Amino acid sequence: MREAVFVKQNSEKWQRYEVLEHGSPDELANRFIEITNDLAFARTFYPESKTTAYLNGLAFKLHQTLYKNRKERSNRFKTFWQTELPFIFWKYRRQLLYSLLFFVVACGIGALSAKYDDTFVRLIMGNNYVNMTNENIAKGDPFGVYKQEGPFQMFLRIALNNIFVSFMAFALGAFLSLGTVVALFRNGVMLGSFQYYFFSKGLGLQSVLVIWIHGTLEISAIVIAGAAGLILGNSFLFPGTYSRLESLKDGAKDGLKIIIGLIPVFLTAAFFEGFVTRHTEMPLWLSMLILAASAAFVTWYVVIYPTRLFKNHLITAHARTKN
Fold first, then answer.
1. In 3D, which of 262, 264, 271 has the Cα closest to residue 290?
2. Is pTM, for the whole model, over 0.90?
3. What is the pLDDT of residues 162-171, one digit of tens each?
4. Residue 218 region by backbone torsions, left for phi larger than 0, else alpha for psi between -120 and 50, else beta
5. Buried-most residue among 189, 201, 202, 264 (CB within 10 A)?
């Protein structure tokens, strides 16, 4: 079937489902099943079309509406982490990818700038930090900065700072996404120059094994917070079939949910930085285990699990229609 014919046959139904008031749970479930069936058809025959993107958004909206009308309010905390947040990650997977690309490019720019300009690291990190690190390297303790403050005080300071940074990356998306891009670029350049500095001192591998104990979760969360900012800005720039105000409200709500969902990640990263990273002589296997576990968790929860969850919902919806 041609896409134009498919749209003509179903557009009236789709538009009706957009504006209908919330009905009974059974009625909402039927709407969701019909839309997911249409979405499955569109994903099969028109995978890159605007129709598929539109149905994806409508299916997500119906799923959220159905979820909110469930009676099991006592499980709200559990279902937020189990289904709601992963569905948001799946819905906005492109924004997550764009955020990652912006950040990686900025890291590369930072590293190249540090390589070809000896003063660049001092410009970005500050003279005091560079001088202190040089002194620590001379003493044989290049990562001594992580030992200069009490564990709990460091945990609290880092946690509050990272949560603030994530909220700022999100809020700056209100400036048509440009504010978030600038924030991602700034943090990426800082990381790239910072990491290159240690490689230039012959401490590259050691820096990865030490700094990325907390950095894996911390940097991943900053990239995800950047995606939340892009969601906010893009919801106004590209409202689709919704009014700009309605689209902005939805984008702000979904982006804020992502930021809230990142708080435990930032707390865990701050715990690692305050209590674990300071043990710079820990066994190699333990450092690699923490790094691998952190990277595996982020990849699974943000990419793999949401994809499987959505596919399972499509399969369930098809089974219901056949019965």
1. 271
2. no
3. 999 999 999 9
4. alpha
5. 189
Taking only Cα atoms into account, the Rg of the chain, rounded to an integer number of angstroms, comes to 23
What does 241-285 look like in DSSP terms, one character per residue? TS-HHHHHHHHHHHHHHHHHHHHHHHHHHHHIIIIITT-TT--HH
pLDDT at 39 over 90: no
Q: Indicate the pLDDT class of residue 19, thresholds 50, 70 and 90.
A: low
CA distances from 65 to 18, 34, 59, 89, 280 (A): 11, 15, 10, 17, 49
Average pLDDT over residues 231-254: 89
pLDDT band for position 21 (cuts 50, 70, 90): low
CB 124 within 8 Å of CB 194: yes
- Enumerate the H helices of the chain as residue ranges: 3-19, 25-45, 50-68, 76-79, 85-91, 93-116, 120-125, 127-139, 151-171, 178-200, 204-237, 244-271, 284-299, 305-322
Residue 25: predicted pLDDT: 62
User: What is the distance, to the nearest Å, from the Cα of residue 165 to the centroid of all Cα atoms in its chain?
Assistant: 14
Q: What is the pLDDT of residue 71?
A: 47
How wide is the angle at C-alpha 204 spanned by C-alphas 203 and 205, nearest 5°?
100
Q: How far is CA 307 from CA 4, 92, 300, 301, 303, in A?
A: 28, 11, 10, 10, 6
> Token pair of 208, please?
């990865």
Specify burial of residue 75 (Cβ count, 10 A radius: 0-12, 13-18, 19+): exposed
User: Which residues fall within 8 angstroms of residue 63, CB to CB, at 6 or more apart?
Assistant: 32, 87, 313
